[in-house]
Amino acid sequence: MKKLSVLSASIAALLSTTAIAAPVEVYLEQNVASNAADNGDYATEAGATIQTSEDGYVNIAFDDQGWLAAGYGYDFHLSDQVELNLYGELGKWDTGADALAEAVVTYNVSDNFNVFGGYAYKRSELDINDNGVNSNQFIAGSSLSFGIISLDYTYTHENSDGSKNGVVHIGNQYYATNGDYHTNEHEVVLSAEMDNWRPYVSYTYLNTSDLVSQYSNVGENDNIVTLGVAYQF
C-alpha cells in the first residue's frame, strides 16, 4: 500500500479518520506476504498523521525500499451526515516520483457505519526522462465498527489515459506500462482500539492487468498481507 500513494491510500484514509481524536498518530507496519516478499523484498513502512487544525492534517510516510511521501488533507463537513475530504500528496521512490490529488465524499449512515466514494488523479514520472504517466482512480468503500473493533473496505480502480509509456508505483512495487493500463485493488483492514494503541492487519488483492512488474511478471495478481500497529499521542 504503498498506502499513501495508492490513496487510496488506504491507510491514509484510515489514519485521517482517527486524526481528529488525537493530535498525532504514528504507525509501523510490516509486509509479511506479497509477490515482492516472494522475491525477498519485505517492506517495512512507518509514518505519522499530524493534526494541524480541527479539520486539517498532514501525512508523512516512508519505507526501507526507498519510498517517501508527504501529503495534506482537509475535511469539509457538508452536513451532519456528509463529509468531503480533499487530499494532495507528493511521493518519491528511488527512480521516480508521483503526485496525487484526491476527493472523497463520506456518508455517515449511523454512528458506527459509513460508505464513501471518490476520485483521484495521479501523475508518475521517472527521473531519467520527462515521460509522465497520467492515471485516474475511482474509489469506493465502507467502514464498520463494533465497539473497539473496526472493519474497513476500500476498492480502487485505476486506469491511465494511454498517452505515454513509463513507470508507475503501486503497492510496494513499480510497474512498467506502454501507456494504457488498468488495475483493480480490494483492501480489507481489521483493527482494534486499545487505549492509545491500534493494532491492525490488512489484506489486499491487486490485479495489475497488463502491467509488467519489476520482477518481469506480466499481468500478475498480488495477494498482500500487512501487519501494523499505530499509537496516538
TrEMBL record:
Entry keyword Signal: yes
Keywords: Signal
Leader peptide range in chain numbering: 1-21
Protein name in UniProt: Porin
